[in-house]
Design a protein that fits this description.
Blueprint lengths: L5 E12 L6 H16 L8 E5 L8 H8 L5 E4 L6 H14 L6 E7 L3 H8 L4 H7 L7 H16 L3 H15 L13 H5 L3 E3 L2 E2 L8 E10 L9 E10 L13 H12 L8 E3 L5 H10 L8 H7 L15 H5 L5 H14 L13 E10 L4 E11 L1
Parallel strand pairs: 2-3, 2-4, 9-10
Antiparallel strand pairs: 1-7, 4-7, 5-6, 8-11, 10-11
Helix pairs in contact: 7-10, 7-11
Length: 382
């Protein structure tokens, strides 16, 4: 099977909740049913399964196959936090291209709330449990506050500039019924929000929640023209930069040129961008490292553009994690699902006019002083 024949043919979302209304597998199954229905594929046709969920253990993709009642020839579990779901999708496309599977279901989700998230994150990896927790690890906002402070001091970035991300994404979320935070938000609201970890305020921080996302990979000729999505290029990079605490850059800067070279075009050709936005500062760093503006110029770039679905550069058109919430492994898959929705012309009130191609990124596996994993992919509608 040629590379052009394999791609994304379906997607689905399980309704997000501030507190779990069902188990993790309930959320995954809800999203999976919607993804299968969107492609007209029956559950019994599945022969591949990939899952990324923080609270999946002790289960795996293999035991999940038993829960779902499917027999699979290819299985994978995401291992790189918020970058994992995107790499799972990329690997699923490769598996179909190589004939290892025909239909691969990629799932991400979480059944959690704020309190259970705090307990789970303390055991997220041994770096956190063995080195950070004994010294009073204050959670994710503390680390990203240091990263933002470094960016502000090194490049002159301001909270007024970074607030553009939170405000515009909230405007997108107002058009997304599945977003948990849809109340209007102004820049003054953002700036006056209660402090969390200086310089971060409440609206700089993602809200843990419950939900699920699903992507179905298979032969593109299974769906009508205009309903499939090609993965033109995908890359990942882990543990970059080496030994740097709270870096203001990530692995995207390493693979950016090869990603765009394989895709055949660069950032200027993107109709939209779906970033991993657990904190506005990380969205800004991704814009820099993925070539939308030079390093250190994110603040001025944010001032000069609008990121709503009808803005100069549509970003996170469904509202992103900052307004939808972070449902465990669904966070990294949310951006892929929203990209597919846009490329199929099914964005409804938040549809980007004429969307044909876009960029998706992932970030995660927070460890001692930095995030270890970065991923990105260029996607195009059929």
């Amino acid at each position: 099977m040629s590379a052009a024949e394999a791609g994304i043919i379906g997607y689905g979302t399980a309704k997000y909740d501030k507190r779990p209304r069902q188990t993790l597998f309930g959320y995954l199954a809800e999203a999976a049913r919607e993804a299968l229905a969107s492609a007209g594929v029956h559950k019994d046709e599945l022969d591949g399964l990939a899952i990324d969920a923080v609270n999946l253990a002790p289960d795996t993709a293999v035991t999940a196959a038993e829960f779902f009642g499917i027999s699979v020839a290819w299985a994978q579990v995401g291992t790189s936090g918020g970058a994992g779901p995107l790499t799972c999708v990329a690997n699923a496309v490769r598996a179909v291209q190589e004939g290892l599977a025909t239909y691969v279901l990629c799932l991400g989700g979480g059944a959690q709330d704020v309190s259970s998230f705090q307990q789970r994150i303390s055991r997220f990896n041994s770096s956190i449990s063995d080195y950070l927790m004994p010294h009073g690890f204050g959670g994710m906002p503390g680390l990203f506050a240091i990263i933002q402070r470094k960016h502000m001091e090194q490049f002159g970035t301001t909270r007024h500039q970074l607030g553009r991300i939170a405000v515009d994404l909230r405007a997108n979320a107002q058009l997304n019924e599945n977003a948990l935070l849809r109340a209007p938000m102004s820049l003054d609201d953002y700036l006056s929000a209660p402090p969390i970890a200086e310089p971060l305020g409440l609206y700089d921080c993602v809200m843990p929640c419950s939900g699920g996302e699903a992507i179905l990979v298979g032969p593109l000729d299974r769906v009508p023209k205009g309903k499939g999505v090609r993965l033109l290029a995908a890359r990942e990079r882990h543990n970059h930069p080496l030994g740097e605490v709270a870096p203001v850059r990530g692995g995207w800067e390493v693979f950016r040129e090869s990603l765009y070279h394989q895709a055949g075009f660069g950032p200027e050709a993107m109709d939209f961008v779906q970033l991993y936005d657990d904190f506005p500062i990380m969205a800004a760093i991704q814009l820099e490292d993925l070539g939308f503006c030079p390093k250190g110029e994110a603040g001025r770039f944010l001032e000069a553009n609008r990121f709503t679905h009808d803005g100069t550069l549509p970003v996170n058109t469904g509202g992103g994690q900052l307004s939808c919430g972070q449902a465990g492994g669904a966070a990294g898959l949310m951006s892929v699902v929203e990209a597919v929705r846009q490329l199929r012309g099914e964005g409804e009130r938040r549809q980007v006019p004429g969307a044909r191609r876009g960029l998706v990124s992932g970030f995660g596996m927070i460890s001692y002083g930095h995030g270890l994993a970065a991923a990105a992919a260029v996607v195009e509608g059929t």
